[in-house]
Amino acid sequence: MSQYILHPSNTRGHANHGWLDAHHSFSFASYYDPSRMHFGVLRVLNDDNIAGGMGFGQHPHDNMEIITIPLEGDLEHQDNIGNKEVIRQNDIQVMSAGTGVVHSEYNANKDKPVKLFQIWLFPNKKDVTPRYQQITLNESDRINHLQQILSPNEADEGVWIHQDAWFHMGKLSSGFTTDYHIKKEGNGVYIFVINGTVTIDGHTLQTRDAIGVWDTTQFNLKADSDCEMLLMDVPMGV
Asked: What domains appear along the chain, each with residue ranges and CATH number?
């Protein structure tokens, strides 16, 4: 029987540092909730708003798959493995931290914020050679369609990571409905509503609400208004 967990927007952790206004779907930094540690291998989903010219100075990561999806504005990334890039709306970036990487992230503009999701997944291989990948997506490919933006396969659509995970984004018109089929037996899906109203198997979600679905092979998705969403199909075992 399908299992569900609802995470309304107002139950997320919240930290406003002035330069950074962040909402945490799972325990992170000063926000700690033992019931909200992760969803399968999905460890972090941060909804960040970074003020003009501000950002995160150099800091290390290891043995984590880190995905950044800008929603508005431009984020400047620099790391110790030779990458200096700007990530923009409709880009997606992945960094396999592996044996260790040091990087910084700054708002590339002084006069407007950058809004982004940063997502961490536990990898299925430890101590890999650190790697960086960034691509630009075609936003029109997600209009009334679930556009694949990430997978475990280098030759597949989107970026790839060291994990049996598939991410999709949809920009759906009111009334659109589809059945989503889970990609791998034992995986679950965490659905995050970027904006609008969506019903998942009878559970209605509003902007920035989320739901986890597992112990099933598929679920029904219906757009109750024009909406955007991010689906993360991930292994449930850590």
From this structure: 13-137 (2.60.120.10), 140-235 (2.60.120.10)
